Amino acid sequence: MYPTRALRMMPTRRMMRAPPTEDQAGHTVSQRLRKLRKIPAELIPLGVVVGFALMAAGYSSFRKFSVDKTLRLQRQNRVAEAASEEHH
């Protein structure tokens, strides 16, 4: 049984070539925004729905934290906790 080419770590033709240049390297914001046109049209409604869900979740969380007066922001009954730990 002979080892496979990957296990022998022999360079293949693909490994001998230089790696392809980074597509995003050195691009400006305007060049990246132009690439948004390449997004398939089928994905736009999905992006709208996900964006709306994220905004709704953010609004709901912010409202909960700002309006709810029963929300515990600190530990309570520190004296009772210390007394119960002493008995253990």
From TrEMBL:
Highest taxon listed in the record's lineage: Eukaryota
Alphabetically ordered keywords of this record: Membrane, Transmembrane, Transmembrane helix
InterPro entries referenced in this protein's UniProt entry, alphabetically: B12D
Pfam families (UniProt xref): B12D
Transmembrane segments: 43-62
Protein name per Swiss-Prot or TrEMBL: NADH-ubiquinone reductase complex 1 MLRQ subunit-domain-containing protein
Organism taxonomic ancestry: Eukaryota, Fungi, Dikarya, Ascomycota, Pezizomycotina
